[in-house]
Amino acid sequence: MKIWNKALLTLVAACHIGVANANVVEMDKVAIIVNDGVVLQSDIDNALKTLAINAQKSGQSLPAKDVLIGQVEEKLILETIQQQEAERIGVRVDDTRLNAAIEDIAKSNNQSVEQLIASLTVEGITYPEFREQIRKEIAASEARNTLVRRRVNILPAEVDNLAEVLANETNATVQYKIGHIQLRVNDGEDKTKVQQQANELVERLKQGEDFETLAYTYSKGPKALQGGDWGWMRKEEMPTIFADQIKLQNKGSIIGPFSSGVGYHILKIEDVKGLETVAVTEVNARHILIKPTVILSDEGVQNQLNEIIRQVKAGEATFGELAQQYSQDPGSAAQNGELGYQTSDLYVPEFKHQVDTLPVGQISAPFKTVHGWHIVEVLDRREVDRTDSAMKNKAYRILFNRKFNEEVSAWLQEIRAGAYVELVKDQQNDN
Q1: Of 330, 343, 346, 407, which one's alpha carbon is 20 to 30 angstroms from that of 396?
Q2: Which CATH class is domain 6-151+421-430?
Q3: Starting at the edge strand that comes first in sequence, how are the strands of the sheet with 30-34 ordered?
Q4: Is CATH 3.30.360.10 correct for 174-273?
Q5: What is the pLDDT of residue 165?
Q6: Which helix (H) or strand (E) segment is 233 a member of?
Q7: Taking the chain, what is the end-to-end CA distance rounded to the nearest angstrom?
């Protein structure tokens, strides 16, 4: 699919008509006008050819030709609008990223890139055409993801409710080895003092003191003489006050203090069986964002960021000072450019690549994302056990995917309804 300037199309057509006695050359025809771009007849013909080849390979039957053409035209219209949206928000797909995508396509077909090129040639598709189509599809996909993601709203209560459902399903097979300390509140006793003592015990446990020793010393619970050891139990076998507090915490977790009718309780997950642990890498990075304007070009932004890098390396200013002064990301600029510990999958692809690959303490060269131009420095990386929050992450992903797919459909309908579309194919064929 080609995006042409209407004036250029008119000029080409006029020149073609004005040449007398020239050999007749078959030229590609504009089939559909989409806003300020077009879908060519060759785009439709190539799509129909590809569908026919794929259907023959899979033994699948296709609908009637007129129905199939209508479906292909609508698909190409939507693709063109999405590519226009990608251009509007400044999505760029460089050759490195494109080559990686093509390698992935080849691998998914159990082919080398050379074998993929050969199979394309057999099907009548040139490799340059294929590359540009893949480039456009990546750009359209990134634009769609960026613009639709902003429309997805997930409430914390939704995540908690689904996580609880998922946790209950998982907990059916998980076993916990539980340690328990109970501090009793006697009649007439000041409950606040007992609560304070419970808080102090939790702090001592977090600092590494032995749970069994503290249980022998302070607990008034039924397992005090066993060092608070309740042994191995599934949630359904636990006292209700225990089960209500356990939400797939991992080994070593301290829970509490929490209260009941008899006093305050502290639990320790001594060990877990049947629960897959989840470890993730969190990155603490800081960045400076500068956006191009009608006055400040991409080249000008890069020069400004390179000057900032020079000043930091020369010791003339700190990264944090310059982030406060220049960064156009107000949230992080107020924190000296710091983004805090995050998993890198929260970032857009170009930014994710930088924070995943940069050595700690090194400042990147300027790079561009849909938000503008950045430099980034990785301050630290850490491995974090996320077993206790893995279920919430899973619940969030499920909810996000559901809502994202719903919003994609709504967004596509909106941009399709708001586009200028004119079918000119029949008029051209009549001439």
Answers
A1: 330
A2: mainly alpha
A3: 37-40, 30-34, 421-423
A4: no
A5: 81
A6: strand 229-233
A7: 23
User: Tell me, what's the pLDDT at 334?
Assistant: 92
The residue length of the chain stands at 431
pLDDT (0 to 100) of residue 26:
53
H helical segments located in 150-235: 156-171, 191-206, 211-218
Query: What's at 377, amino acid-wise?
Result: E
6-151+421-430 and 279-385 have identical folds: no
State the pLDDT at residue 167: 72
pTM over 0.70: no
| Intervals of the chain under pLDDT 50 | 1-25, 427-431
Closest CA to 320 of 333, 310, 305: 333
Q: In what order do the strands lie in the sheet with 229-233?
A: 229-233, 175-184, 263-273, 254-260
How far apart are alpha carbons 317 and 343 in whole angstroms? 29
Cα 368 to Cα 6, 101, 372: the distances in Å are 30, 19, 6
Q: Could you tell me if 51 and 72 are in contact, meaning their C-beta atoms sit under 8 angstroms apart?
A: yes
CB crowding 75-88: b at 16 or more within 10 Å, else e: ebbbbbbbbbbbee
Please report how many Cα atoms fall inside a 13 Å half-sphere around the Cα of residue 59, on the Cβ side. Answer: 0
Chain CA centroid to CA 257, Å: 36
Domain ranges of the chain: 6-151+421-430, 174-273, 279-385
Residue 228 in tokens:
């608070």
User: Residue 171: what pLDDT?
Assistant: 65
* pLDDT at residue 12, as a whole number: 33
> For residue range 311-369, what is the model confidence (pLDDT) as tens digits?
999 999 999 999 999 999 998 999 999 999 988 988 998 999 999 999 999 999 999 99
